[in-house]
Amino acid sequence: MKKRKVLILSNYCGAYTGNGRNVKAFLNCAYRKYSDKYEFILAAGGMQYQNPDYNRWPWIVHGVLPNDQRELGDWINDPNKMRNAAYGDFAIEKIVNKFKPDIIIGAEDEWGEYFMKNKEFFKYIPVIFWITIDSRPILKEAIDTATKSKYYWTWSRFAEKTFHEEHKLTHIKTQYPCIETSKFYRLSDEKRLELREKQKISQNAFIIGFVFRNQLRKLVNKLIEGYALFKKQNPEIKNTYLYTHTSYSEGWNIPDLCKQYGVNQEEILCTYICRATKQYFVIPFKGQDIDNPIANYPKSMITIDVANGVTEEKLNEIYNLFDLYMHPATSGSCEMPVVEAALTELIIATSPYSFGEDVIELNKGSIPIDFDYYTEIGTQFLKSNQKSESIAKIIKDVYYMDKNEKQKMEKLSRQWAYENYNAEINTDKIITELDKIPQHNWDFVPKLEDFKKPDALVQQIEDVTTWIKNLYKNILNMDLDEKDEGFRSWIHRIQQGQPREEVEKFFRSVAYNKNQELEQKAKNIQNPTDFGDLLNKEDKKRILLIIPESVGDVFMVTSLFQSIRNRYPKPEWSFYVATKKEYFDILQGNEYIDRILEYIPQMDNLIWLEGQASHKGYFDIVYPIYYGTQ
Predict the structure, then answer these.
(1) How confident is the model at residue 1 (pLDDT cuts 50, 70, 90)?
(2) Which residues contact 217 (CB under 8 A, 6 or more apart)?
(3) pTM for the complete prediction?
């Protein structure tokens, strides 16, 4: 059976971003388990077409930005266009035409994929929008895309519920992202103590952790304020640390926040990485470009960032240094550090808004942080602002929590994360959804050059011959010789007094009608929504034998019909045979079959034919006897 091609437009699978790690986890699993029936191509956002680093992946990777920036033309002078180009707007049509995918998945932030619905291929190729949405109200652009899209997934139940309840878009569904759960787990107590000793952290220290990209929506200011209040209210508690695993070169100025709230900066730990050795160190912030303390690499250490991160193995070690994980944020579609922390058996504290709704409602090992709503200026998004008093109380409560109760909550936290975000489980779910999508047929996708341009600009040139040529060229995409009979006919009409406005209107009408014909032809082929009408509604059970071609194969397969009919007799069973129309004559009048169907590419998809889950299918038994031979 021919493999189906899946093109994924998302972050590069080698990037230390949420989208990048999600797509890497999915592709690792999908390639290993399903490469017998699917071929995967990643269109990597923000990356150039070719890059030597792509060679380390078993699947195809193709960037969305040209290696030669001159190819971008005027785009390069427009910041908004360049932003969209980095998401894939500039090159996605070229990539689609190059690889000819059967299915496209756009896994990105809500503003990073919507241009696809305006592309020509959107009319013919199934496009799944797998979108991160983190706030109410949902953007009008998101609602418009969701309305036009048959396949639209969100990263959280929060977004799905908002679409269902406020916009009545009930086809929207939640598909949680993929996390390689095997890489995040609680280490043994002995190993955890070794890690602390290696990083020169007291064995009995209580560490509150926060793993985040240093963005304004990550409210580290509220965490530091809450930590300061906790220290003030509980002077008897001495040996505590706040661990901020983030970049100190962007976003919040954490040292200044410590001064503002009166927090000892020696109690605020961060992660340094040596650019020379890739070792990580856990120490208070000492500035950027500092010396490696154990190797002769001066000015080699910086706080981690998107380009200089730790491996997942090392990140797991860092989570295992924590005693409590807190995630204060204004919003978030799916905060992957929350899931990773839960996998390492940590109690999670966050607010029940946005993705936090999913956490607090479903994770029995979580604690809600009290918050107030506020409206964000400019966007009008509803956001959450955590209360420092609640943060201080949660730190104290967990610090003094009964050991058995704490361990119980920690186990429940991991259970929630594993059941909802395991890459193996979620990849299987995604592939099941892909299997349901009807087979795509590239033979019937109109090429861009086939389309006319009914709205093209045509200059009013005095010379009639040149003007008529421009009508053909600009509107109908045709280069005609002056000897062409139709061309000469138009010259004659104008010379006889026919107004140019009438001629131009006719050309535009022809262009529009031609485009409609192309689109309808493709739509009829690609969306056989009336397939059920080809079947007898009175059938009790149905069996289908598929043999697309050729003359010899179709003729030879008729020798099987009698034994099939004997095994599946009338009137209980109806026997259908599918082949290409040119071979109908061979089957006409055969006494053993009930009906002949024209073979269509969707028949390569057995789930579409036999059904699965909510899709009932059309046949009880299918014999695709051409598999492996045609």
Answers:
(1) low
(2) 329, 330, 331, 332, 383
(3) 0.73
